[in-house]
Please model this.
Amino acid sequence: MRRLFAIPFVSALVGGGIVVAVIAAVGGLGSSERVVTQIQSSPIAPSNASNASDQSHAPTPHEIYMRTAPGVAYVTSTIVHQSESPFHFFGGGGESEGQQSTATGSGFVINRDGTILTNYHVVENAVKVTVSFEQGKTVNAQVVGKDPSNDLAVLRVPTEGLHLQPLPLGNSSTAQVGDPVMAIGNPFGLERTLTTGVVSALQRHIQAPNGFTISNVIQTDAPINPGNSGGPLLNAAGEVIGINSQIETGGSGNGSVGIGFAVPIDTAKSELPQLEKGTTVRAAYLGVSTFTIDASLSGLNLPVKSGALVQTVEAGTPAAKAGIRGGNVEVQTSAGKVSLGGDIIVGVDGKPITSNEDLASAIAAKKPGQTVTIEMLRANGSGGYVKKSVQATLATRPNSVPNANTPEG
Model:
């Protein structure tokens, strides 16, 4: 079973004692084991880094660490638990609504004016945020802008008395599977730990804290653990190509098994002008939940082998106003319960849609207020399907996915 975890490190104050727990998307992480990180000393050659043309001296991980670690921050949040938050404590009975605890994660400096980029879930519901730097200096931070749908947040700290060292932002679109990468963060509270690995896969999808889908995610085997959330994933040139966000643990363990996920830096760069102005970014919204059509539904005699089968349509949403229909007959399949009879979305503005993720990505690429053409197949009531296109004017995403079985952008 896949178990995805957000990865801040949390200590909750309960009854005068300290209980270690972790905020997680579907569970929690905790460990009392000592973590030892070995720094690789041999050079690693970039394949698509911006300085790849100059191979006279490829920087070693140690050199990159010495150059970038001062710009990596230790983020501590005093948080108040919300009963509706999808990131909850696992084990020990959980935390009651309104109870306070402390979460620690990572972040990194992107501007000498005191701007720090991190994950939204590191500071979600925070009533106080502090940031510590390499030489033990700790300052209060303000949460300036946030995007829960892409798990991003921008902090601002006062610059007086600080020597801030911004990290260079790279281009995540040039990353390739096999490229060497490095992660710097604060796993289990161990400050500025370096781990190395490669890009394991591209264009993955993970779930954001508010239930929507984050697209184009980078998968890496560089070990990341609780406390790495919000820290940088660096390429071989020492440029940030991702923000470490989640891990998959597998089995019953809670530590890294070499499958980590980073939000692409290109996503963050496209939103930074808004985030730095104090905006809460909300993407476009259609208002449907869907089920991916694949081989697991082959026994249902659907007219296509791929697409997004509409399950539900939220009342009052652009989808409802456009006349998109959800399913009305529930059946059990090897992939779980599926509602049949709804429209099958196969395209958005001429772009083929083969899965839930395709649909989420297509809608996320639009802006609220834009009108899109949804191409779909509709049951004709006599066992067949007809092609149909509808126009939908997209709305602004709500704060969380409303009663949806499957997140949709």
